[in-house]
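Student: Please help interpret what follows.
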Amino acid sequence: MVAWQKRARLITLVVGVGVVVAVFATTGRRTAPPSTVPVARVDPSATAESKGAVIRQVKGAKENFRLEGDLLSYPDGSSRLTKVKATIDRQGKTYVMTGDESKVGNNQSHIEITGHVHLTSADGLDVVAHSATYSEGEGIVRAPGDVTFSRGRMKGTGVNFTYDTNRDQIGLSDKTNITLAADPNGEGATTISAGSVLLARKDNFASFERSVHIVRTDQIIDADGAIANLTEDEKHITGLQLMNSARIAMPGAAPGGLSAMSGDVINLAYAPDSEVLQRATLAGASSLRFAAEKGSREKTLSANALDITLAPDGATVTALTARDQTVLDLPAPRGQASKSIRSASLVGTGDAQGGLKAAVFTDNVEYRETGGAPPVQRVVTSRVLDTTLANGFGDIREARFSGNVRFRDGGTQATAANVRYQVPTGEVELTGKIGNALPRVDDDRIKVDAALINMTLPGPKLRAQDGVTTLLKPAKPGAGGSKAKMPGIMQQDQQANGNSDKLDYNGDTSLMVFTGNATLWQGETKIQGPAITVEGATGNLSASGGVRSWMTVQDTNAETSEQQKSVARGAGQEMLYEDAQRTVTYRTDANVISLQGDVKGKTVVLFLGSNGQDIDRMKAVGNVTFKEKDRITIGEELNYDASVQEYNMAGTREKLVRMVKREEEGCKESTGRALTFKKGADSLAMTGSEGTRTQTKTVSCAELPPN
């Protein structure tokens, strides 16, 4: 080794040691590295774990799905997240769903979140569930089991929640309970329970099925199914359709107001932004109930179809239509008659202040009044019934029937084309012909036909006018009493007839007053005059204003001395038959023509036998003239006794009795204070008195009728 090589090797060694010393001096002693701590695994079976993982799905330039959480990946390609947050963008709306844990499919199109699931949307929807699934392909969130949800004033619970994000529809399959809180004005609070519900938010309706029960501010609603139309903000129900066995109760209704309704289907419409009912339509076995005063039963209306309009108070009916098998029942307070009306259809009208004020019933109308004190049985049938109402259906003030009207009140029946009935007072007016038949009233006592009949019930009491014809009926066998008694001068077992311009009749007393060209007859018995009165309770009869009469009587024939029936003619300004005394009295210009002869006087009285036909006695008073076939007797008072067939004529001091009698040689006149003679006999007895004397002389026969 040469010297330079030795020197170079030495220099190199020195430099190397120096470097080592320098490095050591600079760094000091090197410390040992720390030992490695293993990472804590959430799931050892996972192939990878990471915190704050984000799974995104982008269509075009827009992210429509984001899933965040702590990610665990598995050999089969699936993933699981904890502390999950899913953000979904569908149809322009954002939904956020959080939970404890989630499973994600291979293509992240389906997720399942379990544990404390909470779904919210940008428009206020809030859902809490135990678990939920979301299918990106369907866009549907499903939450089995118990669920609670809310949005604005709405809160609810149920079982098996679904939310279709595409259609914006919420569904619950069972045990649904929903509450709508009152609005700022304290109105609109609603609770709803049902089996299942579908809330179609985009279409603004909710559908309920199975045992639907709804309680609103003033309504209790039950049905098998219901569809509610909602406002855009879901704060108000604008309409409600109830299906199958629908019932609505309104317990706070005032008397006369709508208190309940039912039907197979009910459609309700509410005022805008309000919970006040404005209209209801009912179909299939439908009915309405109207609140009554305390102690009274509610009024009811039923039909196969009903349509009602309500006032702003939501209870007062202002318009009503009923169709097909319409029945209105109006129970009355104790002691008053209840009413019911049946017809094919009904149209009611009114206003917000007084409710229904008029109702028109059409086709096959049947009106009934029953009960009360005293009890009534009143039935009216017609084609149309037009009513005037008070306090809704609380009271019918007037009923106007038209079209072949038949009115029955107990034993009283009436017919006419038109009948006006004032219900509170019982006044009835009948007008108009049915075909050619005039209005008619018919009871167990009389039958009356006239162009106009006014009747008051009960009784009846009636006034008929314009072409009145009357049939008086005989008493029915076993009827008893004197109410149906025929006038005593007529046969009691036969009917009688009457004509007049007017008739007033009181059914309570069977009093009849015929006025204006009045005629009353039975067989050959007839009375004519301006006015005739028949007292059915007594059998009395009177006539006035210039009377003529024809009566069937029985007396002894003067020529044959045998009992013979004949017609006695009578006349006078007045005629009076009194049944208790069996007397017929003619007053003022009285005249009676019978088998006895022709009697004139101021008053003539016939005394009849027990059979009402035999003339037992006769009396004439006041300037009496008695004409027979061959004699005429003039005096002041005439008395006839049929038992002895004897006449007695009396005069006065100033006016003696005078008799002119036809004899073979001519006529002789006899005068005296009194004259007694036999019927059909030549013998006579004449008496005088102080200051007078009897005398006989021959006179002209001019006063006697031709021989």
